[in-house]
Amino acid sequence: MWWKHSVVYEIYPRSFKDSNNDGIGDINGIISKLDYLEYLGINVIWLCPVYPTPNKDNGYDISDYMNINPEFGTLDAFNVLIKEAKKRGINIMMDIVANHTSSDHKWFKEAKKSRDNTYHNYYVFKDSGDAPPSDLQSIFLNSAWTYNKETKEYYLHMFDEDQPDLNWHYQPVREEIYKMLQYWIDLGIKGFRFDVIDLIAKEIDDNIIGDGPLLHEYIKEMSKKVLKKAHLITVGEAWGATPEKAKMYSNPDQSEFSMIFNFQHSLLDQEPDKEKWDLKELDLLDLKKVFNEQQTELYNKGWNSLFWNNHDLPRIVSRWGNDQHYHIESAKMLATLLHFMQGTPYIYQGEEIGMTNNVFESIEDYRDIETLNMIKDRLNKDIDMKDILESIRVKGRDNARTPFQWNESKYAGFSEHKPWIEVNQNYKTINAEQQMSDKNSILEHYRKLISFRRKSNYKEIIEKGSFKMMFNDSNQIFAYERQYFDQKIIVLCNFYSNSLQLPREFTYNEVICNNYEVTQKKVSKLRPYESIVLDVSNQ
Ligand code: TEU
Ligand code: CA
Fold first, then answer.
1. If you measure from the C-alpha of residue 312 to the centroid of ligand 1, how many angstroms do you get, rounded to a whole number?
2. Which of 34, 73, 389, 463 sits most deeply, having the most CB atoms within 10 A of its CB?
3. Does residue 341 have its Cβ closer than 6 Å to ligand 1?
4. Which of 15, 46, 60, 313 gets mutated to test ligand 1 (max ligand atoms within 8 A of its CB)?
5. What SS3 state is found at 447?
6. Is 41 within 8 Å of 447 (Cβ atoms)?
7. CATH for 1-97+309-455?
């Protein structure tokens, strides 16, 4: 299972590198940066959707599953990407958005024409007179139902009205998806990320949206018919996941996926049972509890993904690090904390150079449909604009979507044309070029972490070692040990800016990884955001 010692790099193509200076990232731009990714040491690229789309949700609204968005390039360019990546030992993981299509998809254009159209049953239509079938809300805060005049019915969309949900209970839909997956496998891709996979088996009449009773039956069918024989890396996005559910999705018998994205940690700084915009301080004890459960409950029973960031999440060094006074130390600490755990790490573009959240000057600068809908929704609820902007500053998805900062030239070397979204103005001090020539940079730290997992003599203990949380009651120290036969390492992280005395001192054989100079023979305290990994075998 090659994906157990893989490291995945997520690319949001629109913001990665623009090769033809139209202000929009593209496939040839990615090809031009494959040497950088080889230098970083990753071996899988998760490519966010590159299919034709009207861009209501930046590609998560697909109008043709078996083609390439002309804004991003051509199928020929895509084939070159696969070939050039493979030359560098890098595999491509495609993003599959199969819970819904764009309303521009030919299937939906047909389906909405008449109730007896061949494609009508590809979607979820309900005849409920002149009122919606229910008061179900979409995740983008509008009604989940939109009226279709031609057939005098409402259709379901769990996201935007231009993202109608597919009806997975209808077998021809599943066959279409499997055919599409096979098409990309035949082109040489080696993995898939499944968008909101936990929603596909919804039972709308029973008001069940996530984790429908037939969900794992459909995933097993997809695995049996297409995935398993292709020896892929596969990951399902499951916002409602728990370690219990993760065990089913990542069953070692490979009857479903390699792993899932479990977001329990990512939900810890929002008020429970409220929206992501209702902010709450993170309690480190909660974070330790979630990671401890994931690590221990899936040990030899499943497999974890390890991530802080993605194209939907704020940047971790701004969110739970300290991008003002301890930018480098806290970025390295957060990366170290994650990368010595068991699982497959996912690095989101820019995370490896410590890119931060962006302060957008005005509402006109925002691009994300989720954010724009939230502003409308909260203004309608008379929530103060100051609070709305604070929530977006902390959690808005555009934070992660500003152009990658390559160097200190105009537009951060992303393009020579004004980009589709503004560049973060700290690009002159935070960029890849400057960090490639600084051995103490965040980038060099990520390179080390990746090499530990992929080709060091700690590879086995990182991939297979047991996990034991340490100092469980501390709300400042995040520390754990990994054991593999007579090898033992400990990871000690100070999650905050005040120095602290450790509950005990540690002697060690070797300092494996650190973000401050370590000279003392015994470790007994940690500096602000300090992380140290020690080889303590036989100590
Ligand atoms: O995201 C699923 C999803 O629900 C997240 O958007 C979540 O609601 C929130 O944004 C987390 O902050 C997937 C894709 O990753 C996302 O980009 C798409 O917008 C969404 O599905 C619809 O395809
Ligand atoms: Ca371009």
1. 6
2. 73
3. no
4. 60
5. helix
6. yes
7. 3.20.20.80
Catalytic residue annotation: 195, 237
Parallel/antiparallel/unpaired status of strands 233-238 and 191-194: parallel
Q: How far does the centroid of ligand 2 lie from the alpha carbon of residue 375, in Å?
A: 29
Pairing of strands 233-238, 259-262: parallel
Give 185's strand partners: none
Residue closest via CA to ligand 1's atom 7 equals 312
CATH superfamily, domain at 106-156: Oligo-1,6-glucosidase; Domain 2 (3.90.400.10)
Tokens of 380: 């309608």
Which DSSP helix (H) or strand (E) runs through 47?
strand 44-47
Q: Quote the tokens at residue 488.
A: 């033992």
Reading the chain (539 residues) residue by residue, the pLDDT tens digits are 999 999 999 999 999 999 999 999 999 999 999 999 999 999 999 999 999 999 999 999 999 999 999 999 999 999 999 999 999 999 999 999 999 999 999 999 999 999 999 999 999 999 999 999 999 999 999 999 999 999 999 999 999 999 999 999 999 999 999 999 999 999 999 999 999 999 999 999 999 999 999 999 999 999 999 999 999 999 999 999 999 999 999 999 999 999 999 999 999 999 999 999 999 999 999 999 999 999 999 999 999 999 999 999 999 999 999 999 999 999 999 999 999 999 999 999 999 999 999 999 889 999 999 999 999 999 999 999 999 999 999 999 999 999 999 999 999 999 999 999 999 999 999 999 999 999 999 999 999 999 999 999 999 999 999 999 999 999 999 999 999 999 999 999 999 999 999 999 999 999 999 999 999 999 999 999 999 999 999 98
